[in-house]
Amino acid sequence: MAGMNGALFPNFDISEQRQFCIPSLTDTEWDAAVADKSGDKLKALVKERKCPAYTLQSIPIAGRCLPDFGLIQGKDDDTIITDGTDGEGNNIVDDEGGPLTADKVLGAINNLIDLLNLRGFAEKVWADLVASKWMILAGQGISVLVAFIWIFLMRFIAGIMVWLSLFLTIALLGLSTAYSWIRYDSLRTDPASSGSIFDVNPITQSLNSYLELRDTWLVFFIASVVLLVVILLVTLFLRTRIRLAVALITEASKAVGSIMSSVFFPIISFLFQLVVMAWFVLVCMYLASSSVKQFVQLDVGEGKCASGKAGDKCDPETFINTESCECVFYKLGPNELENYLQIYNIFGLFWGLCFVSALGEMVLAGAFSSWYWVLNKSDVPTFPVLSSFARTFRYHTGTLAFGSLIIAIIKMIRLALQYIQDKLEEKGADNPVV
Fold first, then answer.
1. What is each CA distance from 59 to 48, 64, 68, 73, in whole angstroms?
2. pTM of full prediction above 0.90
């Protein structure tokens, strides 16, 4: 095998290929494979994926090693890669009909790398979720418990809780400001910390890469200072409003404590929103899959369609087939009404989501009003949320539908304006009126 390689490929050194095999491959296995004159053991190593069948010269692009094939290595951006044709005689051009340059090939490779990185990032996120699902569930359970304790305490000591939260927030921001400045100053003499946060790849590098940069701590310092100043000013100049807010929070805590079912009602609203979203996606998929059959004229046998109309669209109901020309099925084309129906479906989504949101707000408002406007709290209905839900459906459904309709129309207008703005920006339009 070695002699054959030396005869056919005089510059080929089999010993150099050892470095490309997997690290777990032992020297005994490698030496036995190289000594085998038939080459079967080398083929077995390749088949078992312990050694590569071949190697290609590669270049680093976007943090990955990719084969170059001589397309872009050592070439200027404007260098034309090819101006020939493919196997079917079609000219090889870019999407704009121009020549294919090294810069455009590099851009296409970078786009593929972005897709691969996105897939890898999604896989990492999913793996983290699976590995820490019990910790997440435990954290959510603790959060619910803390929320109930918080609501219970707010019912009796709302003032203390609010002012204590403000002072603790101010103290925490003060500590954050001091610590960020100390870390920023300590990295002044470290040359490795002078890089930019935009040079860090969040997919391939860990969070510690950001914490090793001075710019990161400078951002933390500035953000902490700004928040500290804002909260201090709000606390100093809005003391009266904060006292009023404390009184409102006290009453709200009493209401929530008396109607504990209101804490779980947002789950019902969320389920309603899921139903609306599922219906929207289902209709959207159905409309996207609706197609119309397209027929074209086809030359039959030695004959030709009249006036060179072969390939033109035709209607099989009205077209008269001849011995030289027939109307045949070509493909499934887009439905002309699909875009309009998709717009109508989006409008239905907005209307449905606004209706569900308004329904939840009115049900809660009705439940709390039945508690607030009763002097003797023992007269509050046994199931205030359920009673408010039934009352809303019986008397206020039209109000909710009309109000959500107005909001949905406004959302559609905003969406249309946003679409127009995006299209103008794509075309490079510079219109101050728009």
1. 27, 8, 6, 8
2. no
Note the helical H segments in 259-396: 261-289, 338-372, 384-395
Q: What is the pLDDT of residues 34-84, one digit of tens each?
A: 888 888 888 888 888 888 887 766 766 555 666 655 555 555 556 665 554
Tell me the pLDDT tens digit for each residue of 211-270: 778 888 888 999 999 999 999 999 889 888 988 988 888 888 888 878 888 888 888 999
Residue 217 structure tokens = 């701590």
Side-chain half-sphere CA neighbours of 76 within 13 A: 3
Strand 58-61 to 64-67 pairing: antiparallel
**Cα radius of gyration (the chain):** 35
Alpha helices for 52-132 (secondary structure H): 102-131
The first and second tokens of residue 329, run together, are 């099925």
Amino acid at 78: D
Going 214 to 215 to 219 to 222, the CA torsion angle's sign is positive
| Residue 77 · residue 101 · CB < 8 Å | yes
Q: Which helix (H) or strand (E) holds 327?
A: strand 325-334
- Residue 419 CA to residue 413 CA, distance in Å, equals 10
